[in-house]
Each structure stands twice: as structure tokens, then as C-alpha cells.
């Protein structure tokens, strides 16, 4: 069953066409890695999928899902790193939809937040200060927050940026587990191309238009894949 | 000591100053936490200078200051936010432009309309004698609005402060809440600036937030602490200004500065003890 189908999508961003005529379909339980060089339209694609940018033509269709029901994990900003908030307070900001119009958090909302902290193995951090956590722990907390607003689809923007190798592996393992065991569809943008491609079941290679979309095994043996993965070390550590 | 306080409280202008001051300090400290964390601290300063400009115009034209200042400063808040979000001129530079231009225009208008009088001095550094009874009423109404809106939208404001792109993606209208924040700030500044002085009012916004962040690491604790710090500093500042015959606005800011230093020292000691 298709969770997401994108048809002939074009998006104009900042006056130029950042994505041209893109089409692909994601099935329930897929783990998609979006790759491409800087300026290839990866971020624009994410923003459009989340409903933050309007397509100039074409359409995006979700099955039984509105764009506000996607679990989104954006890149960390400088403001967040030493933000004075407890982990619980951070995770609860992902539960506002579930809480409705009530100005205070209901008991069920708090339980939802705790449940999702447990899913990412961070329940023991609930009372800690967010700013005092390690990079890997902070990403787990942000993943828990994303899980609060979704049952089905996670969109992750550079989840392992600035993490040390151990934390990177742990986070990849966690994402794979959510995908495998809980059948959550994952879309991930990453600069850590070689690892990310190995994690994912499908790859979408973007350079304003679609260069490749299909299974990871096929991508690795394809021309685009050979070129891109071969150049991996000079692409790592780039900006957005 | 108790007699002095009793004498003080029987004075009408002190009563008015206390009512308006406590409400304004409370609003400013709550909004300040979000503004400081979002790196919008200078918006307060920019808006207070716009406020100075409107006070000069109102004085020359003989208009009631608040009725003229409120709409103009709210519009300025709107503009400042727009400029800092998507303008070609970046936020801090845009604020500097607006700050200096409104100060310049204000000074020119004042000098054309009769020169620098005690009024202008009062606008710049504040005076607790200015408050009329209608000012007090308006201040109470507006402060209650600010406080209510803040409490009702507290969770959403936290979400938008912490992570705007996430908030937008989950369907929270972040721009709307930014606007709300700017408008509430504008109102608070207009209410407080004549008592505190346009050059000193942004201290009420920045200090309590930074003071409590020195010790507390949870958002709710930071908010509650800055509200308490702000009100206590205002009362101490006001009383000491009466006792030592110092300007009220400046005394309140100095009370805030001393508290800030004390809290930072406590924070450093706590961090060392933990390790």
C-alpha cells in the first residue's frame, strides 16, 4: 500500500526551480534515503512534503495522513543546544496536536510523551535538562518528540550530523528498529552517504530532477551510485 | 523603616507607580524569556526608541501619549519582525536602523516644538510622577491581557521558541505566535517606558530572563523565577529610589544588575558542587 505518492512535482524556491518534475511512490514500511549534492533540492523536497512550501505544479498524496501527522526531526539549531528546558518539556512540544486546544497538558498527553521516550530508550532522561545532554542523547529526545506526532511516517533531516561514530551507530540502529519492528515508514536526508545508503531499503538520488529511485542494492551497482558513493569522502562534512 | 514604607504607600503617585510597575515588570519578564532565547532581545530596545519618537510627537501635538504610542509601536513591532525574518537587511542591523532613526526624528520634533524640556528628560530616563489615573486603568487592562494570553498560549510559545521549523511542520502557526509575542512586547514597552524611561525599559525584558537562566535549567522554573525576580527588583528599586533620592528607572535596572550578578555566582557555585 502506498503511504506517499508524488506525481510530477515541481517547486519554485527563492525564485528558481529547485525541484523539477519529480515522481516517486513510497510503500508502507519503506526506509528511504534521499541523497544529492548541496543545492540539489533535498531540503526543498522535505519542506514541500511537510507542507511548509507549496508545489508550483504536480501533487503530493498521503494515504490516510495529513502533513501535520508526519513525525519531523529537523536539524538542531544553535538556540537549542543550551536551551533551558527539561527533556519532558521538549518532548511535550511534539504533543500539542494530541492535546488539542487545552492550555494545559492532560494526563494522557504526558503518558504519550513518556511512552515515546521509552521507545527511544531515553525514559531515564525525562527529568534531565536538555542542554546538559550529549549530542546523541539530544537526538534521541528529538526523535521521541517526532514520534509523538506520528503513527506512520518519520522525516529525518541530517539526524547524525555532528555526532561521534558511536552515537551515530546507535541512532541508526534505533531508526532501523523503529522501521523494522514498528513498521514506521522513514524518509531520511543525510550527508553521511555511505552509512545512510546501507541503512535504507530505498534510495532517491536528486539533482533538481530525479537521477535514481529504487532499491538500495540496485543503486549501489548503478552508474549514479558508483559515481556518488565513490566520491563519498569529499562530500562528507558539507553544509546543508 | 516600617514607618518609611507606610509613609511611602500612602502617597498616590507611589501607589500608581507600584501598580503599573509590578504589572509591567511581570509582563516584561515573561515575554523576556522567549525574546532572549529567540535572540530577539534588541527588539525591545528598538521598540522603546520608537516609543520615544511617538511621545515627542504626542507632546508637540498635545495628544494623549498612550493612544498615539500604542498603535505606532505595535506597527513598528510588526515591521521589525518582518524585516528580521525575511528582509535583505538582517535583524540586528534593521533594529539599529529603526532605533537611531526614531531617536533622531523624536529629537528633531522636540526641538522644533519648543526644545528639550524636563518632559524629554522624563521620557528618556523615566519618571514615576507622570502616571495619571486613566494611565493606571489602561495599564491594568492591557497587562491583564498580556498575562492571560501568555498563560493560554504558554505551551505553543514554548514550542515556537524551542524549534520554529518543527512547530510549523506540526501545524502550529509559528508566524502568528511570533507576531503575538511582538505585539505583547510592544504593549508592555509602551506601558512601562514613561515610568522606566525609554532608554532603560529594555532592561526589564532582558535582565530577569538572563538572571534566572543562570541558576535554573527548566523552562517553567526559568519563567516563574524571572517573574519573581522582576517584581522583587522593581519594588526594591522603587523604594530605594525614594530613600536615596535616585531616579526610579535607573534604580530598578541597578537592582536587576545586582541580582543578575548574585544569581550568576550562585549558578557557578552550584555547577562546581555538582561536578
What's the topology here?
The complex is a heterodimer of chains A (240) and B (275).
Chain A: E1 2-13, E2 16-27, E3 31-35, H1 42-49, E4 57-62, E5 71-73, H2 78-81, H3 87-92, H4 96-99, H5 107-119, H6 135-148, E6 153-157, H7 165-181, E7 185-189, H8 193-199, E8 202-207, E9 209-215, H9 216-221, H10 223-230, H11 232-235
Parallel strand pairs in A: 3-7, 3-8, 5-6, 6-7
Antiparallel strand pairs in A: 1-2, 1-4, 8-9
Helix pairs in contact in A: 5-6, 6-7
Chain B: H1 2-9, H2 12-37, H3 41-61, H4 65-86, H5 91-112, H6 118-125, H7 133-152, H8 154-162, H9 164-169, H10 174-196, H11 202-213, H12 219-243, H13 248-274
Helix pairs in contact in B: 2-7, 2-10, 2-11, 2-12, 3-4, 3-5, 3-6, 3-10, 4-5, 4-10, 6-10, 7-10, 11-12, 11-13, 12-13
Question: How would you describe this structure to a colleague?
Answer:
- The complex is a heterodimer of chains A (240) and B (275).
- Chain A has 240 residues and is α/β, with parallel strands linked by helices.
- Chain A has 11 helices and 9 strands.
- In chain A, the strands form 2 sheets. Chain A has a 6-stranded mixed beta sheet with strand order 5-6-7-3-8-9, with helices on both faces. A 3-stranded antiparallel beta sheet of chain A has the order 2-1-4, with helices on one face.
- The longest helix of chain A has 17 residues, at 165-181.
- Mean pLDDT of chain A is 85; it is low at 232-240.
- Chain B has 275 residues and is mostly helical.
- Chain B has a single domain (2-274), classed as ABC transporter involved in vitamin B12 uptake, BtuC.
- Chain B has 13 helices and no strands.
- Chain B has helices spanning 2-9, 12-37, 41-61, 65-86, 91-112, 118-125, 133-152, 154-162, 164-169, 174-196, 202-213, 219-243, 248-274.
- In chain B, α3 runs parallel beside α5 and α12 crosses α13.
- Chain B is globular and about 55 Å long.
- The chains are: A alpha/beta (240), B mainly alpha (275).
- At the A-B interface, α3 and α4 of A face α8, α9 and α12 of B.
Amino acid at each position: 500500500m502506498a503511504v506517499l505518492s508524488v506525481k510530477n512535482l515541481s517547486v519554485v524556491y527563492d525564485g528558481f526551480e529547485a525541484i523539477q518534475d519529480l515522481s516517486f511512490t513510497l510503500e508502507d514500511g519503506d526506509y528511504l534515503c534521499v541523497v544529492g549534492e548541496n543545492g540539489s533540492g533535498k531540503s526543498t523536497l522535505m519542506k514541500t512534503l511537510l507542507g511548509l512550501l507549496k508545489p508550483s505544479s504536480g501533487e503530493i498524496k498521503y494515504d490516510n495522513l495529513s502533513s501535520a501527522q508526519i513525525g519531523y526531526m529537523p536539524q538542531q539549531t544553535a538556540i537549542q543546544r543550551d536551551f533551558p528546558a527539561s527533556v519532558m518539556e521538549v518532548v511535550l512540544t511534539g504533543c500539542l496536536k494530541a492535546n488539542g486546544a487545552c492550555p494545559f497538558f492532560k494526563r494522557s498527553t504526558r503518558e504519550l510523551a513518556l511512552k515515546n521516550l521509552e521507545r527511544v530508550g531515553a525514559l531515564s532522561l525525562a527529568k534531565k535538562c536538555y542542554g546538559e545532554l550529549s549530542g546523541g542523547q539530544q537526538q534521541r529526545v528529538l526523535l521521541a518528540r517526532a514520534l509523538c506526532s506520528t503513527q506512520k511516517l518519520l522525516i529525518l533531516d541530517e539526524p547524525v550530523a555532528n555526532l561521534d561514530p558511536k552515537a551515530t551507530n546507535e541512532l541508526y540502529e534505533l531508526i532501523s528498529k523503529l522501521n523494522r519492528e514498528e513498521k514506521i515508514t522513514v524518509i531520511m536526508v543525510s550527508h553521511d552517504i555511505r552509512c545512510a545508503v546501507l541503512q535504507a531499503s530505498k534510495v532517491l538520488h536528486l539533482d533538481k530532477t530525479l537521477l535514481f529511485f529504487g532499491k538500495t542494492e540496485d543503486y549501489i551497482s548503478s552508474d549514479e551510485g558508483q559515481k556518488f558513493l565513490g566520491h563519498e569522502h569529499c562530500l562528507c562534512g558539507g553544509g546543508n | 523603616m516600617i514607618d518609611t514604607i507606610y509613609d511611602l504607600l500612602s502617597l498616590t503617585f507611589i501607589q500608581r507607580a507600584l501598580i503599573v510597575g509590578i504589572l509591567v515588570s511581570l509582563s516584561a519578564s515573561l515575554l523576556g524569556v522567549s525574546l532572549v532565547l529567540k535572540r530577539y532581545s534588541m527588539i525591545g530596545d528598538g521598540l522603546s526608541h520608537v516609543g520615544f519618537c511617538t511621545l515627542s510627537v504626542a507632546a508637540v501635538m498635545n495628544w494623549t501619549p498612550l493612544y498615539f504610542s500604542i498603535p505606532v509601536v505595535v506597527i513598528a513591532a510588526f515591521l521589525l519582525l518582518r524585516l528580521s525574518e525575511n528582509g535583505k537587511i538582517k535583524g540586528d542591523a534593521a533594529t539599529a536602523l529603526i532605533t537611531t532613526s526614531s531617536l533622531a526624528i523624536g529629537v528633531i520634533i522636540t526641538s522644533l516644538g519648543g526644545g528639550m524640556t524636563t518632559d524629554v528628560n522624563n521620557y528618556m530616563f523615566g519618571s514615576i510622577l507622570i502616571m495619571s489615573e486613566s494611565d493606571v486603568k489602561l495599564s491594568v487592562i492591557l497587562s491583564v491581557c498580556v498575562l492571560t494570553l501568555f498563560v493560554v498560549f504558554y505551551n505553543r510559545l514554548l514550542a515556537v521558541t524551542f524549534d520554529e521549523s518543527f512547530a510549523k511542520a506540526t501545524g502550529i502557526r509559528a508566524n502568528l505566535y511570533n507576531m503575538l509575542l511582538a505585539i505583547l512586547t510592544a504593549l508592555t514597552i509602551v506601558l512601562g517606558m514613561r515610568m522606566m524611561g525609554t532608554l532603560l525599559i529594555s532592561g526589564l525584558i532582558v535582565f530577569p530572563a538572563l538572571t534566572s537562566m543562570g541558576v535554573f535549567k527548566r523552562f517553567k522554573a526559568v519563567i516563574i523565577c524571572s517573574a519573581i525576580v522582576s517584581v522583587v527588583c522593581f519594588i526594591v528599586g522603587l523604594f530605594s529610589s525614594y530613600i536615596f533620592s535616585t531616579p526610579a528607572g535607573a534604580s530598578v535596572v541597578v537592582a536587576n544588575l545586582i541580582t543578575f550578578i548574585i544569581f550568576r555566582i550562585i549558578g557557578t557555585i552550584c555547577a562546581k558542587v555538582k561536578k
